[in-house]
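Lab channel / #folding
Pinned by the channel admin:
"Please post every new chain as: sequence first, then the structure tokens as a reply. Keep commentary short and put observations after the output so the thread stays searchable."

First post following the new format, from NK:
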Amino acid sequence: MSDPREDAVYFAKLHEQSDRYDDMTTRMKEIAQMNVELTIEERNLISAAYKNVIGTLRASWRILTSIEQKEEMKGNARHLEIVREYKENVENKIETLCNEIIGLLNDNLIPSQHSTDAKIFFLKMKGDYCRYLTEFFYGEKRRGAAENSLAAYQEATDIAQSDLPPANPLRLGLALNFSVFYFEILEAAERAQMVAKHAFDAAAPVIDTLSEESMKDAMLIMQLLRDNIALWSSSAGPSQEEKTTES
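Reply from TO:
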């Protein structure tokens, strides 16, 4: 007799290998709604599924934002109308996808996890997807999404700093994305640099205590932290041309 969970995982892997990430999110949504503790493999699959879909949409949104600015400068009203209509369509898709995964995180994934790593993993994920909404929300909607993102990142950080060693790749990746949130969303450059630098400085002396695989992951994230610190030190604020890096 087939196991629905095993089948869903296998289908998700097939979708990933064939670059069918929309189908992959559907399969991983089935697993999320089982309200079970996910394995590391399942956590990575659900992250990869949604990250690939949202990544493409966010890249499209950035391109359309750049085109919109150029059309404004040209003064072509009809072209500007077309671009804005298409950009709004992309924003609606981003909002729908973000709300879907945030709903799964709130209702299924976060409450069902018992391990420290899993809780941090999914709280970080919630912070990320709330942050993506703030990139194009305005007014009260933006404020609400930013508050939800901040709360999720902060809760994950409190657990990570208490229960994970400084060089742990999950803790470092969380610090990386939290610092990006401070810089790009709250426009708090000093706070962003402080979060990134603290994570880097705490991890550097103990990175050689990690396994070879974990050390490789940690060193990659530390390089991203270093790159962002350098960029933010010489930047007046976030811009479309100089995008910070995240995990």
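NK: The mean pLDDT is 95.
TO: also worth noting, The CA atoms of residues 53 and 214 lie 26 Å apart.
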